[in-house]
Write a structure and sequence with these properties.
With 762 residues, the chain is an alpha+beta fold. The chain has 24 helices and 12 strands. The chain is elongated and about 105 Å long.
């Protein structure tokens, strides 16, 4: 018994037990889909990092010693003038006080509660920089402005150098596995309250806490916005393509039943609902719909030609079983290449899509035929116009096949010459550039402060009270002075600044005393005086350990690309190696350091994944077609779309980001689908002893229209993905859409020409 007969027997078995098949499928889907309730809330940027990633471990070690690094920031900007106006300072003062009520807050810093040191004889007093806003005169405001400009611990930390923008920084001590929703919701509520009370002053919410929360809020917004709209689009599109209500219903059930268990599997496996995972249902939907279109279009065509309903679906299954299996397999293998990368969120998305592709295949060859047989289907399917066009196209390709190959080859050669202009880099600061509220704040903060993110450096002395050592503090000072000269650094704050300031104030405010004293005992006394003089929550616990053996530098960094950040980090490590001994540090750490390193290391993994996926797919296609000739031919139409796709990319940018790489791994398994369907039909035509031109006509008749409408569905899915608020999804959707359309044109124009020239003849 040959394979085709086995498929026929399988189809007959399905139809004979169609009710059992439908009920079994529904029960299985319900059981697996129940895992959706276990999908975890996004853990912010931490969901993008493997637990053992070195730069993430550096962050965890910092948090263990000094507390959580997450900062929630209010951005205050008056519509006119600078922050040294009564109303503005009153807002900052009131919001500072209210900010202590923020869930999980441990410290609140602003210009109004900045700890300012004054000396009266031998007595020292440390109080808020601004004590009573209501009593401030114009002269007071002017003096405060000039005084603030001279305070290193104020400029670029709670006030911009221009004095146009003020910040309120709230340090958060978040319990493990707790999302940022509560403090962020509180902050946005305060924003609305204070903007209503002070309508001429802008209040924004930023910081690493808001950045982390964006992963959750964007995922929720994308799911609520994209899913209903795209499902409606697919319903309309499916009906327009199939012209059959019941067939459209079958297609809809197959795609929904493919999505639900894949998300359920994600829940059972403990995946997080990160923005990349939110894209998975749309990708699964387009894959499953493409399967359904291939199955249903041929079945409806068969019914139009006089076949009974059961015979029509059996014949369709015989024709489509192998190509649908191969396309599901290659799609799963292609996207599984994301597991070679270092970003769990993309691995989880890839594995969810792979599961969805498997369900899409299983349901397309079981549930779909069973439902087709059960439901009252009358074919109104008409493809006469399209078939006429495809016949003309087939004739045109047969006549000018050499020219098609030459023209497309020349285009590819030209585009290929442009590709060396591209380079690999990334910019984590763009992740939420499609979120209006985030961009609004970013456009204010970045020009004034560089970014709303902090980087840290933990410098150890290896002995209790070691930070009172003058040599240690001078090294901190030296390190700080070097850092502020670097392009990637906006400003730096250390405990040495506190000591220098106290030393100056204790010596009549003379600038010559703004330095580290040589007396260790005096330094220890300064620290003691400071700790006893500041109010609760404003001490130096976030900057030094309890035993005073280590201190933490606070560094405000500018947004930089991955390449720039990695280069900066290398320079930092080199400086440390040459200048910081005998003290030690692991270097700088924080989100602005970790994310760029994650990209650079992820790139190598993705390139390896791409090599694996592409090689494996081509091998599988070649083996399945049982022909080295067809295997080689299949490579060409699956390389050309990527060459041309990246050629189009050069029109918009010269940077290849992680998102572009992800798009390649998603689409690599999709673009081969049409090639598989076309080649399998060509082989069948040749086995029927059709001449080359007749074989191409046969392919266009039975697979041309399904390829077109399946590609339209895939294109629509990825175009819809460009509506995502997550910038990476936007890039992935756009890139995949471009590649899918190019692949369609290549499969309709180049592949038939190659088969006519190099393929086997009858």
């Amino acid at each position: 018994m040959n394979f085709e007969n086995r498929i026929e027997n399988f189809a007959i078995t399905i139809l004979n037990h169609r009710i059992k098949v439908v009920f079994s499928a529904i029960i299985l889907i319900i059981l697996i889909s129940s895992g959706i309730r276990f999908l975890e809330t996004p853990s912010g940027y931490r969901g993008f990092v493997q637990d053992d990633f070195k730069y993430y471990q550096d962050i965890l070690e910092l948090e263990e010693k000094y507390g959580n690094i997450d900062v929630l920031t209010y951005v205050i900007k008056p519509n006119k003038g600078d922050i040294f106006q009564k109303d503005v300072l009153k807002l900052i003062d009131e919001l500072t006080e209210a900010s202590w009520q923020t869930p999980y807050s441990s410290r609140v810093s602003s210009i109004t509660n900045h700890q300012f040191t004054e000396v009266d004889g031998d007595d020292i007093s440390i109080d808020n920089f601004i004590i009573n806003v209501d009593e401030l005169t114009k002269e007071n405001l002017s003096n405060l402005r000039e005084l603030a400009k001279k305070e290193d611990s104020i400029v670029n930390f709670v006030m911009s150098e221009s004095t146009n923008v003020g910040l309120i920084n709230i340090n958060l001590e978040m319990p493990e596995d707790i999302a940022f929703k509560k403090p962020i919701d509180f902050a946005w509520n305060q924003k609305m309250i204070f903007e209503k009370k002070y309508p001429d002053i802008f209040v924004g919410v930023a910081g690493s806490a808001q950045f982390s929360h964006n992963f959750q809020s964007v995922a929720e917004a994308d799911a609520s916005k994209m899913y209903p709209g795209f499902l409606l689009l697919i319903i309309i599109l499916t009906y327009l393509l199939l012209r059959s209500v019941m067939s459209s219903l079958i297609a809809l059930l197959v795609i929904i039943f493919s999505i639900l268990p894949s998300l359920g599997s994600a829940g059972w496996l403990g995946f997080e609902a990160q923005p990349p995972l939110i894209a998975a249902p749309i990708i699964i939907l387009t894959i499953s719909l493409a399967h359904a279109i291939h199955m249903l279009s041929i079945a409806l065509t068969n019914m139009n030609e006089g076949m009974s309903k059961n015979d029509a679906i059996i014949d369709s299954l015989k024709i489509n079983f192998t190509p649908i299996f191969l396309t599901s397999f290659t799609t799963g293998v292609g996207i599984a290449g994301l597991n070679f990368g270092d970003i769990p969120a993309y691995s989880e998305m890839a594995n969810t899509v792979a599961v969805g592709a498997a369900f899409g295949f299983i349901l397309s060859v079981t549930l779909l035929p069973a439902l087709f047989s059960l439901l009252p289907i009358k074919s109104n399917y008409k493809e006469s116009t399209m078939l006429f066009f495809l016949k003309k196209l087939a004739s045109l390709i047969y006549k000018f096949k050499e020219r098609f190959v030459i023209i497309i080859s020349l285009i590819c050669i030209y585009v290929f010459s442009l590709l060396p202009n591209l380079y690999f880099d990334d910019y984590f600061g763009s992740y939420f550039d499609r979120v209006p509220e985030w961009v609004e704040v970013k456009d204010i903060v970045d020009p004034e402060f560089g970014s709303s993110f902090f980087t840290f450096a933990d410098i150890e002395t290896n002995e209790p009270n070691g930070i009172t050592n003058p040599e240690y503090l001078n090294k901190l000072d030296e390190f700080e002075n070097w850092l502020v000269q670097q392009e990637s650094v906006a400003d730096v704050s250390t405990v040495s600044d506190v000591v220098k300031n106290l030393h100056k104030n204790m010596n009549g405010g003379l600038e010559e005393y703004y330095k580290i004293p040589d007396n260790k005992a005096l330094i220890a006394q300064y620290f003691l005086m400071y700790e006893f003089s500041v109010p609760y929550g404003m001490d130096l616990k976030n900057q030094m350990t309890a035993d005073k053996s280590s201190s933490r530098m606070l560094i405000r960094t500018n947004y930089s690309t991955a390449i720039e950040t990695v280069a900066f980090n290398k320079e930092v490590n080199l400086w440390i190696e040459n200048n910081l001994k005998p003290f030690k540090t692991k270097g700088v750490a924080g989100i602005p350091i970790m994310m760029p390193h994650l990209f650079t290391e992820n790139t190598n993994g993705l390139l390896l994944g791409l090599l694996f996926s592409f090689s494996f797919i081509i091998l599988v296609v070649g083996l399945s077609l049982r022909s080295l000739r067809y295997g080689i031919i299949s490579v060409i139409p699956n390389v050309v779309p990527f060459i041309l796709g990246f050629g189009i990319l050069t029109l918009f940018t010269d940077m290849v980001t992680a998102s572009h790489q992800v798009a390649v791994l998603i689409s690599i398994g999709l673009v081969v689908d049409a090639t598989i369907h076309f080649l399998s039909k060509y082989q069948k035509a040749i086995s029927m002893k059709l001449e080359a031109d007749e074989a191409i006509q046969y392919c266009f008749k039975y697979v041309g229209y399904p390829i077109i409408i399946a590609s339209i569905c895939l294109f629509s899915g990825f175009i819809f993905l460009t509506q995502s608020l997550f910038f990476n999804n936007f890039v992935i959707g756009g890139m995949c859409a471009i590649i899918i359309i190019i692949a369609l044109l290549v499969d309709l124009l180049l592949l038939p020409a190659l088969l006519l020239i190099f393929g086997k003849k009858a």
